[in-house]
Design a protein that fits this description.
With 154 residues, the chain is mostly beta strands. The protein has two helices and ten strands. The longest helix has 13 residues.
Length: 154
């Protein structure tokens, strides 16, 4: 038993530290842009934090944080061409941020890519995001045209 525990702890200590970054972007019909960024760090690739950025005409641009303990469920994966991102988070325990994405791993300026009329839309992806501080939990935007980027550094 002690030997198994020693082997497990040794294996965890030898696991390389991994840093991953995911960003997903959606736009409402009214032109509101929402960007959700998640950072994972460490050998177990646990989500460390997130930032939600909302750019709304007439309101301006604002952000709010997602703390590690507010991220209930998270997974990411992919390579240069494909990305998979899943997120269930509740800012302040009540305000939802939710992503389900599997598709092309986009690179560069994600807002410009999202707005590119030549881009082929990918069905089956969704993102639901709370509007932000000062708004009730039911003030949300839901997106079915979502694009994401996933990058991994070891």
């Amino acid at each position: 038993m002690k030997l198994n525990l020693f082997i497990l702890i040794s294996a965890l200590m030898m696991t390389p530290k991994v840093f991953a970054y995911s960003a997903c972007v959606g736009e409402t019909y009214q032109g509101k842009i929402v960007i959700v960024e998640i950072i994972t760090d460490g050998p177990l690739a646990k989500a460390q934090s997130g930032v939600v950025t909302v750019a709304e005409a007439g309101v301006g641009k604002y952000t709010y944080q997602l703390k590690q303990e507010e991220i209930a469920q998270y997974f990411e994966g992919g390579d240069t061409n494909t990305a998979m991102v899943g997120l269930a988070a509740y800012q302040a325990g009540n305000n939802p941020v939710w992503i389900m994405y599997r598709g092309i791993n986009y690179h560069g300026d994600l807002v410009a890519v999202l707005r590119d009329p030549a881009r082929v839309k990918q069905p089956g992806n969704e993102m639901r995001v709370w509007r932000g501080p000062g708004y009730p939990a039911d003030q949300q935007s839901q997106f079915t045209d979502v694009i994401c980027n996933f990058s991994l550094e070891q």
